[in-house]
Design a protein that fits this description.
The protein has six helices and two strands, in the order αααβαααβ. It is mainly α. Strands 1-2 form a two-stranded antiparallel sheet.
Amino acid sequence: MARDDAQPSQERARGAALGLPGTGPGSLASFGQRVVAFLVDALAAALIAGLVTAPELPRNWSLLAFVLITVVFLVLAGQTPGMRVLGLRLAHPEPERRIALWRALVRTGLLVLLVPALVVDIDGRGLHDRWTSTAVIRD
């Protein structure tokens, strides 16, 4: 049990272990921001797949559209349309480098499974980011 005169514990800022600032540009995005970006991307994928499959529902074609949109935009721009809307981007382990195709493919494949994205570390990064050495940060 702590004494009344004990010093408060030192809280480590999210992303400090990665060398990221605790707040502002370059800091880790919150779970809520990442979920909203995911939903924007999922909706965009469903709309695009719906245009291709109309008048039928897109069914699993929207999943294919999601994978293609996510991989292409991560490799070319470092952010998906949903990330762009929310002012986020995917940080590469080596600054000033593009996300490699393999990182985008592995990260997206795990994201599609959804469970790895919900298992987060102390910084709030999902397994899909940990396994690809990436992080979603504020732009």
